[in-house]
Fold this protein.
Amino acid sequence: MSDPSEHGGAAGGTSERGLPGAGLVKGLAVTLKTMTSRSTTQQYPDVAPELPPRSRGVIALSEENCTVCMLCARECPDWCIYIDSHKEEVAVPGAARPRQRNVLDKFDIDFSLCMYCGICIEVCPFDALYWSPEFEYAEYDIKDLLHDKDHLGQWMATVPPPPAHDPNGEPAKEETAAARKAAAARPAPPAVRPEPGADPGAAS
Ligand code: SF4
Ligand code: SF4
């Protein structure tokens, strides 16, 4: 058994050094410091919090960008994206045969399963998914956390614009590739012909 005098210093009003009431004074000092310091309480929901621009609130879907490639649904670690589609024939003027395209029938995300990892947004090759900082979509019924494509599309209005380009940053790789292509396509300058009668060795 341990000796109670080893542990009972502050609790019993006696410090480890044996000064009576030192623990009480220490506690009151903390209370006084807290009372006089500025409050950090946020008055939510009366005052909306200032969120960082890249906050992960809810996922928004830009339906017209989605090609139903299924990459997001396959990569989602929680399997909480449900996609359904059908094929449609589109007549192309001048083409021998009509083309086929995917038409999105269903695009649901179950936010009761989502862990907000952002993988679906990162892997989407067609910029169809975005983060919105909107977070006020709690529901009384967990089933209502399944957002369909119309609901996900409504969040697009809350997606912030992309940040401005850093003027000191590297140029986009598309710009570099286009400049390289344009330089390669430019015709080479004509070779300089020597003047008739001029000494051929004078140019060298
Ligand atoms: S954020 Fe992560 S868990 Fe949520 S839907 Fe996207 S991939 Fe799935
Ligand atoms: S990865 Fe993008 S384009 Fe492909 S199905 Fe998902 S949202 Fe649509």
Observations:
- The chain has five helices and five strands.
- The first strand starts at residue 58 and ends at 61.
- The chain has a mean pLDDT of 87.
